[in-house]
Design a protein that fits this description.
Blueprint: E1 14-15, E2 21-22, H1 24-32, E3 37-43, E4 50-56, H2 58-67, H3 75-80, H4 82-95, E5 105-111, H5 130-136, H6 138-144, E6 155-157
C-alpha cells in the first residue's frame, strides 16, 4: 500500500471557520503562475474565507501601466491605482475558476514590496515564513476582514522604504 504525501507541511494547513482544510501552497502556486504576480501568502485560519497578501511582478505591472497609459510616480502609486487592482482581481478570479468556494481568495491586499529575507519573511531558499509575515502584517490582515460589505474588498498597502528608489517609468 502506497502512502501519498502532500508537499504541504501539516503546520501550514489552514482550517477555515467552516472546518475545511486548505493547503495554502497549492493556491499560492496557482496564483504565482500568473505573469503579474510574484509572490502570495494565503491567510484564513479560523476565518470565514481566504484572503491573500499579493506581491505583484513590478516589471510586468509597469509594462502594463505603460501600455494602458497609467501614470504613476513610484511603486506605491502603481499598486494603489484602481485599474491595477482591477487587473489583479480579474486575473485572480480567472486562475481560481474551478476551485471550490472555500479554496477561493475572496479579498486580497496588493503590497508595494516583496517579502524580505533580511526581515525574516522568507528563508534563504525563498520559502515563506508564515508566522513572521503574519506578525509583520497583522493589522493589515485584520483590516482585510473588516466587514465593509459582503463583496470584494481589495486594497493595496504602501510600504515606505528608503530602498524603494526603483525607477520604472
Amino acid at each position: 500500500m502506497a502512502i501519498c504525501r502532500s508537499p504541504t507541511a501539516k503546520k501550514d494547513i489552514i482550517v477555515t471557520a467552516g472546518g475545511k482544510n486548505v493547503a495554502p501552497q497549492e493556491i499560492e502556486n496557482v496564483l504565482k503562475a500568473d505573469r503579474y504576480i510574484s509572490s502570495v501568502m494565503v491567510h484564513g485560519d479560523r476565518r470565514p474565507y481566504l484572503t491573500a497578501l499579493v506581491v505583484p511582478d513590478f516589471e510586468a505591472l509597469a509594462a502594463y501601466a505603460a501600455f494602458k497609459k497609467i501614470d504613476f510616480l513610484d511603486l506605491c502609486d502603481l499598486v494603489n491605482h484602481p485599474q491595477i487592482l482591477n487587473l489583479v482581481r480579474r486575473r485572480i478570479d480567472r486562475l481560481q475558476q474551478g476551485l471550490p468556494n472555500y479554496k477561493k481568495i475572496r479579498r486580497f491586499t496588493l503590497l508595494s514590496r516583496d517579502f524580505i529575507g533580511s526581515q525574516g519573511e522568507v528563508t534563504p531558499t525563498l520559502k515563506l515564513r508564515r508566522k513572521t509575515i503574519n506578525q509583520h502584517f497583522a493589522a493589515l490582515i485584520e483590516n482585510i476582514y473588516l466587514p465593509s460589505d459582503d463583496g470584494i474588498h481589495d486594497t493595496s498597502f504602501c510600504i515606505i522604504d528608503e530602498q524603494e528608489t526603483l525607477e520604472l517609468n
